[in-house]
Each structure stands twice: as C-alpha cells, then as structure tokens.
C-alpha cells in the first residue's frame, strides 16, 4: 500500500468481495459490506472495526496475491483500522503516540519509571525504602496511600475521558440518518459477540493464526489476557473496599481475595502476552501491516511489564526489594493507564461500537424480513 | 527433494480430484506421490474458484434446504445432458455423493451451515466454508498429515501408456528438465486442455483469440492429449465447451466467479455492429450465463455490449469492474468504439417496441426481432452504461473415456490396467453437454476417491 490513506485500497478489495461473497460464513464483515454497496468512508471504517483479524479470508481467497487482483482483505482492513485509531485520537497532538506505537510505549514506560523511581529514591528516606516491611500498611510506608491513589487515578481518569471523546465522535460519525438508538437486545447481542468472540471463530473451525491451518489459539489467548487484566482490576477494586470500608490495610495474606485474584490475573496476563507475542512473531506477515504488528508488540510488552512487575512485587514483598519493586509496578501501571487511548488498546472500544451497530442493523433486517413475509 | 522414482501411486494434478485420490490411496496403504504443476501459492486447479457441490440427501439438513433424493439427482443429470451421461458412472456418482459431507469433514474441510442466513438458497448442493480455496488448503493439510509426498511445479508430460500399461512416466521438473518415474499406478487428475491456447485454436479457429479462461492457466491438458495419442479412448466433442458471459475487461486467466455479467434482463445486448441478437428477457435463471456465453463465441470478435440506462444499471448486482458510462447513447457508442448512429437506432427501435406490463417482469416488446419477452422497459434515463462481454471458458466437453472403476478405456478395446482418471479429465463421461451447479466438484470428489481406492487396490493386491 503506497498511500497513507488506506481507504481507496479497502474500497477496491471490498468491491471485489461484494461481487464474490464466498467468505460470508467466516464473520460479519462480508454480509455487512454487501449491505453497504456504496462503501462510503464511514462504511469502510465500520467494517474495519468489525473485522477481528482472523485472517481466514486471505487464505481462502481465490484472488489473493499472486493473483493480479491482489485481494488482501485483512491487510487492507488492518491498515484502515490503524488509520482510524490515529484519526480519532483525542486530543489531536497525542495521535502521534499511536503512529509510533513501539517507541511511544518504550518512552512513556521509561519516563514513568524514571519519574516514579526517581521520586521515591529522592523523597523516601533510604532507611525506609530499603527496609523489609511487614504487616498492615507496609506498602504505604514507602508510598503513602493518597499519593499512590492519585498517581494511578489521574492518568486513568484522563485516559477514560479521552477514550470517551473518541468513541462518541466515531459513533456519531458512523450513524446513518434515521437510525434508531440501539435497544437492550442490541447491547445484549454485542456483549455476547464480545464475550464469545464469535467473529474470531472463522465460522467454526478457527482462525488462520499462523498460516493456512485453522487454530483457536489467538481467541483463547486474547480472552486469557482479558480475564487476567480483569482479575487484576478486581483485585485492586476489592483491595480498595477492604481499605476504606473494612479498614483492612495491605499487604494482605496470600489466601485473601485481592492477592489470589491479582496472582492469577498476573499469571494469566504473563502466559497470554507471551503466547500472543509468539503468534505475532511467528505468524505469516502477509495479512497484517508492520505498523499493526509494531502496535501489537508494544501493547503486549507493556502488559507483560505490568504483570511481571506485579508478580515480582508479590514474590519479594517481604524483602528489602519491596520498595523499589512497588515503585516499578506503580510506574508500569501508570504508563499502561496513560497509553490506553494511544495504543492498540483502543481497539476494544471501537470494536464494541461496531458490534453494537452491527447487532442493531441485524435486528432491523430480521424485523424487516419478518414484516415482508 | 526429487520425487520418489517408484511410488506405488502417482497422482498427476493438484485440484479436488487429485487430492481426494491421493488421500484415498494413502489411507488404503499405498505410498503416494502427488505432482502439482502450479506453484504452491496457485495450487488447487479450478477448485480455487469453486464454492459448492451437489450431493444426494433424503432430508433437509444443516447444509441444504430440502431433500434431494438419488433418483432426482440422476434425473437432473440425464435431463441437463439430454441423456448423455454414462448410466453406470452416473449411478456411481449419485450413490457415492451421499457421504461426501461426512468424508470431507473427516478431512478437516469445513462446510457452511445454512443457519448463518447468508447463503444463497440451495436444496441440491452444500457450500464450502470460504469456498474452494479453503477446501483445497484443508485437503493438502490432510494429505501431508497422512504422508502423501507433494511436489509443486512438477508436471506430468508423458504418461507413458504402452499397450495397456503405464510404464515409464515422463515428468518435467521446476527447471524444465525431464525425469522419469515408474509408478505402480498412475491417476490422471490434471484437468482438461481448455486453458491450452494451441488446443483452443485447433478447435475454435480464429474465435479462440476472443475466449477468456475463467479458471487456472495450468489446465493445459498436455498429459491428457498425449494419452489420446498413445491409445486412450476419447469421449465428447472437442469443438464444444462450457462458455459463460463474462466482463470483457477480465484477465485472460483465473478471473473466476466475479467476472460474470449478470444483469442482461435489465438492458439490451448488442454486438459490435450494434445489432441485438438474443432475447435478453427470455431467461432470468442461472442458466442465462451459459446461454449468453454460447452466443458470444459467434459474435464478431467474440464481443457484445450490455447497454443499460441509469435505473437498470443501479439495480444491477455488484460487479468486478464499474460499467463504462456516458451522458448520451451517442457518447456511449463513442466510448465503446461503436457506430453512434447505429446504437441510437437500435436503442430507438427497442424503446418504440416496449409494451409495459402489469409488473416489471411482464414488460415485453412487440414487432421487434429478436423480441425481448420479459423485463422490457424503455431505456432512456441518462447517464447510460455498458458492460463489454466476452465468452469465458469453464471447461471443455472432451476427455478420457473411463470404465466405472475410473480405469481409462483404450481405443483398441478394453481398459488400461494401471491408469486411472478422475475429475475434469473424465468429466465428459458424465457431462458431454450442459451443466448444473456443483457437478464438477462432486465428480472430482467421488471419482477421485474411487480412483484412489482402485489404484491402491491394484498396486497392493
């Protein structure tokens, strides 16, 4: 793809798909494209976000390179997705972080580590920092609870705002005239599609994760990662409840809910990031772009850093290394929070919106068909 | 790695029939070598462009919307070929088609259930999930898993039929050098000669230059033609082929399904002298593609133009290339390289003869020759649009005559002992004329399996 705007190429290949239709059993993209024959810019963006990048339609394609039609739908949609992430990033100047995702992840992570570690080394007396703390409130002896909460909450709050602004803009831009707001059935349908990753099943047999053979590994690893992340989130939430409502102070014993959830979550994230990184490195590069592979790798590295620093903190929390490990873990979490709107992580929100829009459109079609009959 | 000089079973070809034959022979215990003429990225023959296959089934099921009893399948086959299908082979095809979905499933081939709601309605066929190329990938993976040795860019040149046996077989390697193998049995599954330009020119004369090939350029039929020289018995008429009306701008080879022009009933079709020559509204079923293809071959330069006005063009299904458009019929004629006055006159005569009916389908012409008997409406809303059309060849109607066990018949009588054929190479035994959807794949699957079993049986017993 020579140009920086991938819409022309996406339009070209999807027009061929609309005349063919063989792939319509793999996922929702092809039926949705058939029903949007004009393939406007917003149509294309909807289809790009709807695509879960299972890659099956490349290996099944009778027109894939070296055929002169050179149809490579997953690559075209991947390029368009990345283009859309950049275009909708808010505020505009920070979109550059998405353009150079690996460098951004590295720089932001290094910056937060230097700042947090630097602050701790400067502000916390070394006798406290390098002491082995035990018992309730041990973490807060190094970094006071208020500071820890503030340092995490500010970037998270900012990022959630930025994501919300982008999602709202995309939803409005993609709305067609007279389109009713989605009903609860549509939300339920979209949620079911997200939970089952229905569009990442390749119509049943699985995805072409590495090459032309089907596999379910990407789908399983994706949700292992997501569940791990949710486990860690739940651990933090429960710990907050313990702290404020029950007056229990961390560190908690190994059998407590926050520690069990956090440990399992961290292990799941570690396994999943390693597995997905292996897939990213080993997979045939034909159906993706170097920009998307870079963004994938950057996010995986960031998540692995969060998980591994958390597990290290758990493992050595009773030793003199705790203070530094705590600072490191806090720094990676802050970096992760900061990069939510400016990394591959944004795919989740856009995908959810595309699935919601698709669920609503599908229900309207079924209702119309029933009305016609 | 050079090919095994003495495989039990040598399979020539790399499409459906070849893979079904190789898998069956290997499962029966034979050492199997498969030679695919194409490079790996273009493997699979015309199956790359296929989507569904016809099979007998007694009830509606997850794959097909209604029953298709064996007797109906047999009657359809004889009907479409005007009774030309070999009765024994036809019976074997129908009987053995019934377990194809299960057999394919056992090879890792995924079929597309109707439940998704996105398939065209079909009672008689089952659809491959992702189409023929996806099936080809699964069959190659299964063949490799079973231990079939696969060589890409190796072509069977000389089948070496000597009397009633295949002995020394000549094979061209990727560098163009010839090597010789001595297989226990040879199964020819390398298709017909319809992509072979010399062969087309021999049988179609100057008209051959106007024919586009819808499928793989590797279907050159060299081994098949050598076999006919070496005493194999031909069947079918080499001067006839299954031709389909496709966009004249399509590539010379491999255009596949998307090149079809579909909306003749919406407009009028004129040749390069701007004359109409066939009732555009007479046939709106899928049989129209082949009906138009057959007529295009006899048009001057094998070209005709489907002319539409804006409502007709906008109601057309999605096409590979956008139509050529112009604000007036005169300007359209200029863009197409036609005589503007002639196109205007033809269009005016047509428009004057249109008699609208109660429904759009009932619109017809009066006093026009040839008539347009349905879907006729006045074509007068600019801009005007045109699709240039040419005949696209799908397969020819000449092949190798075979016995019911797929052994190749000999002109001197009897059959070859260790030479088998499956797929398009022997398809004219079943389809010497006509066609209905999903037949070619079913023939490739059923007779590929039979040939693999018989060849293994011959070698091992």
UniProtKB/TrEMBL annotation, chain A:
| Entry keyword annotation includes Disulfide bond | no
Keyword terms of this UniProt record: Membrane, Transmembrane, Transmembrane helix
Q: Which InterPro entries match?
A: Citrate_utilization_prot_B, NarG-like_sf
- Report TM segments: 97-124, 144-167, 225-245, 257-281, 293-314, 320-342
What is the name listed in the Swiss-Prot or TrEMBL entry for this protein?
Citrate/tricarballylate utilization protein
Organism encoding this protein: Marichromatium gracile
From TrEMBL, chain B:
One Pfam family here: FAD_binding_2
Using the UniProt annotation, give all residue ranges assigned to the region (Disordered): 355-375
- What InterPro entries does this protein map onto? CobZ, FAD-dep_OxRdtase_2_FAD-bd, FAD-oxidoreductase_2, FAD/NAD-bd_sf, Succ_DH/fumarate_Rdtase_cat_sf
Q: Does the keyword Acetylation apply?
A: no
Q: Does the keyword Translocase apply?
A: no
* Protein's UniProt name: Tricarballylate dehydrogenase
- Molecular function terms, GO-annotated: oxidoreductase activity
Q: Which cofactor does it need?
A: FAD
Ranges for domain FAD-dependent oxidoreductase 2 FAD-binding come to 8-426
Keywords from UniProt, A to Z, are: FAD, Flavoprotein, Oxidoreductase
